[in-house]
Amino acid sequence: MSQVAQAAPHRERLWDAVVAGDEYAGVAVVQEALTAGLDAEAVLLDVIAPVQEKVGEEWAADRIGVAVEHAATAVNERVVAAVAHRAAGGADRAPRGRVTVGCVDGEWHAFPSRLVAEVLRLRGWRVDYLGGQTPTPHLIAHLHHTDPQAVLLSGSLPTRLPAAHTAITACQAVGVPVLAGGRAFGRDGEHARALGADAWAPDARGAADVLARGLPRPAPAAVRQVVDDLPHLADQEYTLVVHSRGQLVKQTLVDLEDRFPAVRSYSDVQRERTAEDVAHIVDFLACALYVDDPEVFSAFLTWTAGILEARGVPARSLSAGLDLLAARLHDFPRASRLLDEGSRALAARPGDLAAGPGTRV
Amino acid sequence: MTGYFPAEFSVEITEHPASCTVRIAGELDYDTSDELVEAVVGHLRGRPHTGEVRLDFTGLTWIDSSGLSALLMIHRATSALGAALRLDNRPGFLDHRLRLTDILDHLTGPVTPAGLSAPGEDGDQSRAGAR
Amino acid sequence: MGRAPGVPLLVCAFRGSPQSPRDVAAHVGAAWGEAPCPVLVVDRHGALVRLNRAARSLLPRACDGDRLDGIAPAWLSDAHRHVVEGTPGAPSGPLTGAIDERVFEAHPSPSTDGDVVWWLVDDTDRRRAEQALHHAQERSGVLAEASSRLLSTLNVPRCMEETAAMAAEHLAEAAVLVAPPHGRRHTLTYARRGGPVSQVTWKIDPFSVHGLSEALQGFPPVPARWIDPHGIPDWLLPEGFTEPPGSVIIAPLPGHGVPAGALVLLRSGTERTFSDGEEAFARLFAARAGAALSAARLYTEQAAITATLMRELLPPTLERVHGVEYAAGYRPAKDHERVGGDFYDFHPGADPDQETVVVLGDVAGKGLDAAVLTGKIRNTLHALLPLAADHQQVLTLLNGALLTSHHARFATLVLASVRRQGGHVRARLTSAGHLPPLIVRTNGEVEQVPTRGTLVGALPAVSAQTVEATLAPGETCLLYTDGITEARGGPLGDEFFGEARLRRALAECAGMPAEAVVERVQMLAAQWLGGGRHDDMAVLAISAPKNGPLSVVGGEPSQIRRSR
């Protein structure tokens, strides 16, 4: 039986344990899996990773709440630690080199990067794991200190792509190549390429393979400005939308009240949720302007529509928000095009809940 | 990125026959509190009398812990001179902070000859507030 | 026909209009003979018909009637044959070649009788000037590359590798960078052109190489011509450098007042030796490398000092102790700093019956100044731990220790003494002018702990009330600083996160482990901020675990649903 097939029953039992918030049961499941002959990498990637993925999907479908989601993630973290602890004793001492694993500044989903770090350790790399929410200046100071062979930069939130770009160019400027990974960089790594990353990998195994092949150092002399990679930014639409974010949200709320009198009777909390939704739309619009990719914006809209409908909120409000923003931004040709394509994507939605850009609301 | 810019900070001191008023407007925080202390303490040094000092917070938009620290320094200065301190027109957020930290009574209480009278700090007493 | 497309003006001036060289001789006579450039008239068979004075001094052995191939270099006699025979494919540009030390362009003018007049234009100086310019451009290119490559890294070993690699690429066949000693050991970085760069640290005797110890001690450099290449020991030769060295430059790397190392450049005996110009350039390169290396070394030392001093100020790691979960998170106001004015500390009880003491607080101010004061508070509190049964007394003593006349930089804090009793957790909580802790009940209700007291460090006397709280399994007590509630941002960009939002967020955290609560609060505050500036932010959670350490299969899903 293949390791992947062997992993299935353990996966189900681990799911039960993490949803129950039971760390002890979770650790017991992976200990048994290891004892049953599953190797540590398979336990991390074929048992734990799919369970964590399911946590996100179940939350999106409103089958578990925020509390369970966080508790499950915390349990999974400890389960990973248990696997890592057990594997650490048996690892053969063949140091392959040193790498740094970190998240994009502002990224809270550290779990995938943690798995990558542990897999690389299992494969004999010396790994400095910086965790989530690493300010880029700390990352660069760490690179000066340790001079690793590569940085693995993990990102799941597309809205952090501009921050990812800053990190990529900063790492390369000190002569360290960047291997980007995670959902934010696109299904085929298209955003990783657009932002000038030295390499991209779809998952932890892919990342380990890229490292094993070796990454050449970038020429440190070739320091770039963001517009060198993304010449479309010269039109200033991204900058202007980001600068006027608060203003845009306020105006859109006023416009919403004008158009839908029912909005006037919203409670403060409802009003704030609406404001947050509009702010999210503006954030993703800005991100799509940054990478000049309508897919980023459309994927967010269809995903959000799914989230809203799973919670009994009609997705009509999203379309209305797009219309109002389009009226405010009619002088911005790229933004107008994105809003237009977004509206069409919403209209053409098949109505299923595909995995989309991860936003924890 | 949020496009938030604080209101301009200003200090305006007016001398009356038996008191002086310090009008504070804008945000009293880490960036502006030194300015307030220097302005008030500098003014008090040149004053011929020891009438009460009234801080008027009508225009205050925000205060943080550094701002509270500035009020404590001003209190030391007024106490050392034997002048009473009054905190007028306090906005709600200021009142909340003063009560939370339990220093309202201290700042506005009756004047004691020395601002600071902690045990073991005798040598410092005479200098307190006169820095 | 490969005639030069345009005879230079200088030549034309002497050539005059007539086409026949014999006519030239006849008409111009002495002037032709006096032409400053060498002129040779050669017949179709390759015999010299006539030479002018300049040509005679260039080719002193030549006489009229000599064969051209006997007295001139092959490039000229071959060219003559091509011109006479009209060989196709002859070069189209001006013919150039060397005669003795000088370089000439040769311009043929065939005449009607079959003779060819060869005008030789001396091109040596222009060539030299061009070559010098090319070298200068190449060198400034190398220096520019050196600067950007070396300044991009502040990592010392990396900087040494780059230096050696670039030296081997541009200045010599191989280069070895000898770093100043660490004790008696030196780090040596070897690079060979086209080969890998390697680094070793071992004991060497720099005095065994003339010029090396001088360079490492900061004495003036020993000129290359005084260094005996045969005296270079094997340890100074990179792997793969098999030929015996033929010439050596040892250039000191000048540092910030102390030498930053020495750069040894090697060329094997089969290659040409280093010229004076190359030696001078090597020094220039070494000066750049020395400056970059010194900057990297200085940064590394400073970073190490900072790290050492900072270690005491960094927040501690919290964990589950004696059946109670603790977790905390910290984010300084400035992203490039690691410490600030918020702090927390953690002192586990010696055994499960002893209280674990935690504290979370905030000193007025930001950055390192504030952090130093947090260090003082943490140290003082550590010393006062034996008195922790009486929070009021601890705060009074702490207040006295912090009072100073120089500033009114106070602190606000919450002290918590925590112990597990049965399935519940009991906490004695005391606020010294700090935001009161919040408790999240299993039913999602959020309560404020009604403790209050005076801030510490500014007033002569302080007072405070201690409140005892009990946490049932799954309940959490949250201590936090105002950086959380005063996070400014949100969808409209200018609102405070505020206590109401914090309470709403906590209501969703019922039943979550401490770690998850901290993560959730930090995440919401960070999202609220967006990219806006913020104050220091600290959160600390104390939770009664839902599953006791002995229950292996606890926590049915129904319980979780209820707590949502």
Percentage of residues in DSSP E strands of chain B: 15-25%
- Order of strands across the main sheet of chain A: 2-1-3-4-5
Q: How would you sum up the global shape of chain A?
A: globular
CATH class of the largest domain in chain A: Alpha Beta
Helix content of chain A: 55-70%
For this structure, the CATH topology of chain B is: Transcription Regulator spoIIAA
Q: What share of the residues of chain A does DSSP label as strand, in percent?
A: 5-15%
Averaged pLDDT of chain B, please? Answer: 82
CATH class of chain B: Alpha Beta
Dominant shape of chain B:
globular
* CATH architecture grouping of the largest domain in chain A: 3-Layer(aba) Sandwich
One letter per element, helices H and strands E, the order of chain B comes to EEHEHEHHH
**In terms of per-residue confidence, which ranges of chain A show pLDDT below 50 for 5 or more consecutive residues?**
352-361
Tell me the major beta sheet of chain A.
Answer: 5 strands, parallel
Write out the CATH superfamily name of chain B.
Answer: STAS domain
Notable characteristics:
heterotrimer, A: 361 residues, alpha/beta, Methyltransferase, Methionine Synthase (B12-binding Domains), Chain A, domain 1, Rossmann fold, Globin-like, five-stranded parallel beta sheet, 16 helices, disordered C terminus, B: 131 residues, Transcription Regulator spoIIAA, STAS domain-containing protein (chain B)
